[in-house]
Amino acid sequence: MKKIVITIDGWSSCGKSTLAKQLAKHLGYVYIDSGAMYRAITLYFLRHHLDWTDVLEVNNALKNIILEFHFNEKSGQSEIYLNGENVEYVIRDLVIAEKVSDVAAIKEVRTFAVAEQQKMGKKKGIVMDGRDIGTTVFPDAALKIFMTADISVRVERRFKEMFEKNPNITIEEVKNNLEMRDYIDSNREVSPLRKAADAIVIDNTNISMEQQLKIALNLLKEI
Hints:
Layout: E1 5-10, H1 16-27, E2 30-33, H2 34-47, H3 55-62, E3 67-72, E4 77-82, E5 85-86, H4 94-104, H5 107-120, E6 126-130, H6 133-137, E7 143-148, H7 151-163, H8 171-187, E8 200-203, H9 209-222
Parallel strand pairs: 1-6, 1-7, 2-6, 7-8
Antiparallel strand pairs: 3-4, 4-5
Helix pairs in contact: 1-9, 2-4, 2-5, 4-8, 7-8
């Protein structure tokens, strides 16, 4: 079957990466987590105490950032490397989660990340998830999916995920963080989160991982 680009956009913690990984594994495609790229950039900015409101400082920093994905045979997952360092687990911290939407809203950062993502997609055979993949990064993708889920379900999912790494975190902190990220992502000037006109919505509030994969594979068959 001819290889294509599949995009999955949607709100935080609505199952985008889960479905993207499922599809990539099933199809033998490469999975690219665009959110991890923005998190890695945020990590770099925080580590170097950069003022990301300073355009010159941002542009200079971006020249020193190399982002790569490498497949980990043990975990069976693609993991992100920042300048040669595996930062897959470091970037999942709440400190990064609280700042990533601010960093991702910067025009220069988005231009840099989109160019990197488009390079990765040239050979096709990829599944990429994020917030502007079907609208900005790959507007001509053959299959575009937009994921959504009830806020209460999303908060519960994110809380379980973060509690394993930080048992002191509260569900209220997680809820506030999600709501803040939703607002910033959908109201930023550059590439805001929105559903592409030709994207198909999957609401996974009340369906299993197996069911959402089946729905996506049926959509693939239709095209």
